[in-house]
Design brief:
The protein is α+β, with helices and mostly antiparallel strands. Helices cover 21% and strands 35% of the residues.
Length: 225
Amino acid sequence: MARLSGNVLGNLSGRLGNLSARTVEGQTILAARPSSFEVSQSPASIEARKKFAVTGNFAKFILDIVSLAEIWLKSKLPGMSVYNTTFKHNYQFSDSDKPTINNIITPGGFGLPVTSATLAADSLSMELGALNTVALFSAEEVDLSIASLVLYHNPTDPDDLPYQIIKLTKEEAGFDFTSAYTGSINFDVVQQGIASKYQNSILYLAVASKLADGKVVQYSATHSQ
């Protein structure tokens, strides 16, 4: 494996003959590719590839939410991309057929005081305890960002996908961190259609405090149920 610094070759990615290239933190990394290889068909290898695909899909949904992408950027591991960091934190929790209740959408954070969180056919409703009971907030932290993924699985029709994920977000401007919060997020038509096809679900929920300019300051650990 070779590392190239500077911009002589620019930022490269993909395959270059018998080399593969990727750019991480401004460095282009070149690695030799084997001339040929045989994909293992052992049960363990097949299960690992399925788990890899499940985790990769879950990571993409996480990073498709702006506030969560910013949070993971803050926690990016040295020499790794934000995507690979998110993947690494979640791989151990995934099953080969779907994410589990142990998967996470934030890398740690303060405990989220969820009093209740309920999924209906067309919405997510929640009640949170006062956030200042679990973290200290400065006067500059004025807004709250709510982010959630909902994993639907066990389809009523076996011809449907084994699981699907929807993403939900809400921004609360001028948030009062000293008071309990009650709120809801409505599903759009597509999300309602997905929810109607499945018998079971897993909810992943997290919040983040923000400055007036929209930058994330603090964030909660993932609440899942």
